[in-house]
């Protein structure tokens, strides 16, 4: 879905590094029906919702998620998968739902407040080896304020003392999973760490019961893989540097 820091090309770039993965873009109902897994990238969530409504894809996307097909939402994609969202623009926006979470839109502030940190890796990420933590890039990011009892919490971020005073809490949830739905407030695609993408690919493989090949996953908008995201000047220097092992 177009707009903002969607980084769909970076998602594609990392997925193509995983053997057996076929990556396609989705713009139409037929293309959506042809895929076995869906990644909803970041961007301006209200604009994304309006475009999806204009193309008539909201009901199709909701049906895709409710059919039990794996879906991963990053940043704005997390908002799309939430059952409820705070801080929406006037008039609100369409939500796909499926995850029993309440998210705060732009919890971490404007793009100038973007930051990165290292967080403890959940078991589904640690199982692929490398380090016990991972690099988390937050760009005008949401956060999960509340999660239902059936939602698995994959990662939390501890707020700074100043942030804790402002928000009245010490930490927020930044990655969740429930069945075949997964959402992250950060952008794994803006690193060279494949493990989050490998975890999602395994979700798709398990669901499709095709261990040797993954049918297409989602992406929209054509374009060459850039050396760095051109719409993220905050992270212009050594953005795609190698991860610490």
TrEMBL record:
The active site is at residues 75, 187, 189. Its EC number is 3.5.1.2. Pfam families: SNO. Gene3D superfamilies: 3.40.50.880. GO terms for cellular component: cytosol; glutaminase complex. It is an enzyme of class 3 (hydrolase). GO terms for molecular function: glutaminase activity; lyase activity. It comes from the Eukaryota. L-glutamine binds at residues 43-45, 105, 139-140. Keywords: Glutamine amidotransferase, Hydrolase, Lyase, Pyridoxal phosphate. This is glutaminase. The lineage of its organism: Eukaryota, Viridiplantae, Chlorophyta, core chlorophytes, Chlorophyceae. InterPro entries: Class_I_gatase-like, PdxT/SNO, PdxT/SNO_CS. Belongs to the glutaminase PdxT/SNO family. It catalyses: L-glutamine + H2O = L-glutamate + NH4(+). The keyword Cell inner membrane does not apply. SUPFAM superfamilies: Class I glutamine amidotransferase-like. NCBIfam families: PLP_synth_Pdx2 (TIGR03800). One of its GO terms (biological process) is pyridoxal phosphate biosynthetic process.
């Amino acid at each position: 879905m177009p707009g903002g820091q969607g980084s769909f090309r970076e998602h594609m770039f990392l997925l193509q590094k995983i053997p057996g993965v076929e990556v396609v873009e989705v713009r139409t109902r037929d293309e959506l029906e042809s895929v076995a897994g869906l990644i909803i990238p970041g961007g301006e969530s209200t604009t994304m919702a309006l475009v999806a409504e204009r193309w008539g894809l909201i009901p199709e996307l909701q049906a895709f998620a409710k059919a039990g097909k794996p879906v991963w939402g990053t940043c704005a994609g997390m908002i799309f998968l939430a059952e409820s969202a705070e801080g929406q623009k006037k008039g609100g926006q369409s939500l796909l739902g499926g995850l029993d979470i309440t998210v705060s839109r732009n919890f971490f502030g404007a793009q100038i407040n973007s930051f990165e940190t290292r967080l403890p890796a959940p078991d589904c990420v640690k199982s692929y080896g490398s380090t016990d933590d991972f690099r988390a890039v937050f760009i005008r990011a949401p956060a999960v304020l509340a999660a239902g009892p059936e939602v698995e919490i994959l990662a939390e971020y501890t707020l700074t003392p100043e942030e804790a005073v402002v928000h009245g809490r010490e930490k927020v949830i930044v990655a969740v999973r429930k069945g075949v739905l997964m959402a992250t407030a950060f952008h794994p695609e803006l690193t060279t760490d494949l493990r989050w993408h490998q975890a999602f690919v395994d979700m798709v493989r398990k669901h499709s019961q095709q261990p040797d090949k993954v049918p297409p996953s989602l992406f929209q908008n054509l374009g060459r893989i850039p050396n760095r995201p051109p719409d993220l000047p905050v992270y212009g220097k050594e953005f795609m540097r190698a991860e610490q092992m």
